[in-house]
Amino acid sequence: MTGPTDPKGRCSGESILFPELRLGVPEEAAGPAGREPRGLGEWVAFIRDQEMPALGATVALIHAVTEDEKSPTGKLAQAILQDAAMTAKVLKLANSVLYNPSRQAVSTISRAIVVLGFNAVAEIAIAIRVIDALLTGGIRQRVVAEMARVFHAAVQARALAALRRDGRSEEVFIAALLSRVGEMAFWCFGGKLAQRLDEALAAGQSDDEAQMSVLGFRLRQLSQGLAREWKLGSLLQSVLDGSARAGVPEQAIHFAHRFAAEVENGWDTPGLDKLVRGLATFAGISSEAMREELAINSVEAARIAGYFGAAEVGELIPRPTPAAGVVEPAETEMAEAPSMEPDPNLQLRILREISGRIAAGANLNEILQLVLEGIYRGVGFDRVLFALLSPNRLQLIGKTALGGSAEGLRQAFIFSLDGTPGDLFNEFFRNPRAMRFGPGQTPPGIRVDRLQLAADPANACIAPILAQGRPIGLFYADRTHAAKGVDDERFEAFQLFAQQVSLAVTAASSSRQNG
Question: What Pfam families has UniProt attached to this entry (predicted)?
């Protein structure tokens, strides 16, 4: 049984998510219902447990994936693909000049991990979740202003690190982007106390003076606490702690934040000229080249904010006038989110990528992940699953799934094979072939009762995976609404993707024999 719910609909007896990440804050720190938090510890607990618990879950999931030595790349791709909006944002960033200057097209999350790197994609996923959570309300003009500054600083910091030939430029971008997470979170969720702080700042008090008088702590300390709590990376914590032994990444972030704040007063102020000279010395280029670099980066920062779903934030980033010679280049837009309808162009791009990976000798896990993504995003199914026979061939076991309630589907997809006539799975492995199920489509003489109990699909299809002509598993895909059938075009595309794994298995077997 669950306990009574609070005004936001949460159960009063609900356990805290991931208690091992608690930062030593006592259980009662968040304060009783109806009382706003008091002190730094309560604010950390309040934001973590009541306002942004989904972020804690995302961070914990990403950390679990990165620590998995068996197949972290595939699991990271699956974690991102479960969220259609996140998928679209990651792909936009993967195709941006910022992350992909060579402009090689990236159509899949699997490819994004190859092009950008595993850690970069993992950090982007966390940053996307943070930005999503902070675009929900509060004192919006303060939230948006803070966010505009961090996006600008993040792009400038990454460029500065790259000019210094520092290999952590992607990590620098994320650390700069999240370096004011406490400030943004407070303006978003601070309620009446945020209004009081807003009034104090509007009355002319300095940031530090207003924060100490209204809160009793500095918002920078809140950023420190949340960064530790969510384990947002050692570089971010080093920046926030103000390490006396700052390296190039920390210096790049500090310089970028100074520039992002100063340029809000205009691109032609004496203070900015002095700062540009300092940045030029740091980067090892002329002041003229530095100013041109900064102008280009400001344009890119506005675009990157849009890719994170924060277009209104991009509008606030100070950009030079057209007279400064900076042109905003046109860029191909990715779809906002998978539509669950067939996309022939995406199918073709993914099939080409699969063929290239097979020819290059990629491992089967990579091919499987691409096929799953092709069926899910390209062919357009609500759920897709890959299952293998057990070594004794007496069980079919779901291994990986994408889509709504994917993990529940995977866990339920376990079927014994005992040779019972007419049963779908027994008949399938006796005579492997592609089949579809739904009104008027289920093959005669085939019983799908066990599939219905496990998956409850309105319309579904399966296709075999063959090794030297012998079935070793299958792909399953479904559409969960009765009105959404599996037409011939979708069914044929599903089979084509499934066949790629059989081709990859054959290629791998031939390679081993020839070796």
Answer: GAF, HDOD
Whether 174 and 124 have beta carbons less than 8 Å apart is answered as yes
| pTM to 2 decimal places | 0.77
Q: What is the tens place of the pLDDT at every residue in 74-131?
A: 788 888 888 888 899 999 999 988 888 877 788 999 889 888 888 889 889 989 988 9
How far is the C-alpha of 219 from the C-alpha of 199, rounded, in Å?
Answer: 16
SS3 105: coil
Token readout for 183 is 């400030």
Q: Name residue, tokens 């005992």.
A: 418
Rounded-to-integer distance, Cα 179 and Cα 236, Å: 6
**CA-CA distances (angstroms) from residue 277 to 269, 280, 318, 322?**
13, 5, 19, 22
| Cα 312-324-264 angle, rounded to 5 deg | 45
What's the token pair of residue 114? 């190859």
Task: Please give the biggest Cα pair distance in the chain.
Answer: 85
Residue 383 parent element (H or E): strand 383-389
Beta strands in 390-428 (DSSP E): 395-403, 414-416
The closest alpha carbon to 460, from 478, 439, 446, 481, belongs to 478
Q: Which DSSP category does 348 fall into?
A: H
CA distance 43 to 229: 12
User: Would you give the DSSP letter of residue 136?
Assistant: S
What backbone phi and psi angles, to 5 degrees, belong to 135? Answer: -100, 25
For 189, 264, 267, 329, the CA distances from 326, given in Å and listed in that order, are: 37, 18, 13, 9
> What is the Cα 316 distance to its own chain's centre?
24
> Rounded to whole angstroms, how far apart are CA atoms 398 and 391?
14
- In 3D space, the residue among 65, 197, 58 whose CA is nearest the CA of residue 133 turns out to be 58
**Phi/psi zone of residue 191: left (φ > 0), alpha (ψ -120 to 50 degrees), beta?**
left
Task: Report the distance separating Cα 140 and Cα 154, nearest Å.
Answer: 21
The single-letter code of the amino acid at 136 is: T
Residue 86 phi/psi, 5-degree rounding, is: -65, -40
Cβ-contact 121, 113 below 8 angstroms: yes
- Count H helices and E strands in the chain, helices first: 23, 6
Closest CA to 290 of 274, 304, 301, 306: 274
DSSP reduced 3-state for 322:
helix
Tell me the torsion sign for CA atoms 228, 234, 236, 241: positive
